[in-house]
Design a protein that fits this description.
Strand content: under 5%
Structural class: mainly alpha
Radius of gyration: 17 Å
Helix content: over 70%
Shape: elongated
Largest sheet: none
């Protein structure tokens, strides 16, 4: 099984667990944390872009 773009976070975690002998629980936890971090960074970037837009609008 190889990584496909349409795979869910859970499917990717299962694949990682199989490849690394990591438990599925640990792989799911790692995927959840990575997703949270990605969302946090995206939100920060959006806030930064909004601030820049507001500054230029004045």
């Amino acid at each position: 099984m190889s990584i496909q773009p349409e795979m869910s976070r859970e499917q990717l975690a299962q694949l990682r667990a199989l490849r690394s002998k990591e438990t599925l629980h640990d792989a799911l936890e790692r995927a959840r944390k990575a997703s949270y971090a990605a969302n946090l960074l995206a939100a920060r970037d959006r806030a930064r872009q909004d601030a820049i837009r507001r500054m230029h609008a004045k």
